[in-house]
Amino acid sequence: MTQTQNGTGTNWKNVNNWHWVEKNCMPWAKEYLTKELTGTAVESGDCKVSVEEVRDVTGDVDINQRKGKVITIFDIALTLGWTGEGYGTTASGKIVIPEYMHDTDLDDIVFDISLDSPNADREKIKEVVRKDLTKVVREKLGKFAKDLVEAHLKDVYIAPDEMKGHPVLQAYQPKPPAPGDAKPTASKGKEGVLGGLTTIKQTIEFVASSQDIYETLLDKQRVQAWTRGKADISREIGSVFNFFDGNISGTIAELVPNKKIVQKWRLKTWPAGHYSTVTLDLNEGRDNTILKLTQSDVPVGEKDITENNWKNYYWNPIKAAFGVKASRASSAKAKGSPAPPTKKQRLDENAADTPGSSPPSTPVQTGKASAAEIQAMDVNSFHKPFKNPRYAAPKSVKKLKQLASADKALDIPMDVPTYWNIEAPPSFLPQKKYCDVTGLEAPYTDPKTRLRYHNADVYQFIRSLQPHHIQTYLELRNAAVNLR
């Protein structure tokens, strides 16, 4: 129940005995009552009676604690076997206590006494049991609640001298590196000298050309698309970049077009002045591009957070915002297409993105992304299939009253739904659901955020959203949570 920290016994299981704690003590009660009552004897004149055995103990026995107050709750029934000797004979029988509760007064305990093979002399022995033996049994039952608390108090209640306060973890202060291995990037932060450093390596596959990935990571408009916020970045070596309201910042150290990007990169929470070195190598294959990330000089305590941030705030949003669309748009430009895709082409692209579709078979090489190309890759600009592009509003629209009057004039069976027949049978077709992010058909719903999604890429993007972004998407469907 207790644990030791820094040599001091401390119990963090139920601080200040605030929470309700309950323990079932019925097995202990059976053993206790059998031990205490068996052998209880009384003598009256020449007659001696005693409790020979405890035959049965049934009911519930609990000890509870809430806000430092210990409470015993029990409701039990007992059956005792007794024997007696006197008046020239012997007698035996049983004593039944139908109910003994935590709030029962001792004088109110009921004893049902029975006699085996009764006669006049044995009735006298039974009378001794009723008058004298029951008094002794009452006294022993009166100690039951007190002994119950003493036996089990430590299991539900933490004594004040064992309560040392809330645990406070000491700040991590690793040993400084040896002089020969000291790194120039190590600096002093809030916790003193920076501790050990480590390296992060990741490999990510994109179904797009290396040119697309290179532009997606360096083009300001594209960066603002997948970060969903203001971003500052340029292609000049030595220039400063800034993402996510300053939470990620750094400088461009080296650029090899479509091949390599090297940055001095840091999180806002890192010690002041400390930067890691991020190297992004792009290796283009036949129908994909492999991005290899190497990030050195990462503080040991920040490794897990940094690894998750690359996945949740870089790779997943990039795939959700562009995916294979970047490769197709670049392919169109490489072939000399002078205009952005038409609505029909966008609809065809959306249909091709359903599970089972195949990516482009060969990589493409493109130039700098144009505004039209970026707009074509914007998921919000795609045509939504639930909107009919050929729909045109009629010149004259009949009002509901006119339609109802026209329906009444026709000889229509009652089982056919009309504008005025409110008893029309409901449709047996399932209601269609659409993705909250892309507008495509959504066969899935995320149980945590309640957002509907089209495929696995959209799901990964949804799991990276902040709570206020999730509420914004739900508001568009009138499904947001309104707290009042």
From TrEMBL:
Domain Vps72/YL1 C-terminal: residue ranges: 433-462
Family annotation (InterPro entries): Aha1, AHSA1-like_N, ASHA1/2-like_C, INO80C/Ies6, START-like_dom_sf, Vps72/YL1_C
UniProt-listed CDD domains: SRPBCC_Aha1
Keywords: Nucleus, Transcription, Transcription regulation
Keyword Translocase attached: no
Pfam families linked: Aha1_N, AHSA1, YL1_C
Gene Ontology biological process: chromatin remodeling
Homology family: Belongs to the AHA1 family.
Protein name: Activator of Hsp90 ATPase N-terminal domain-containing protein
Source organism (scientific name): Spizellomyces punctatus (strain DAOM BR117)
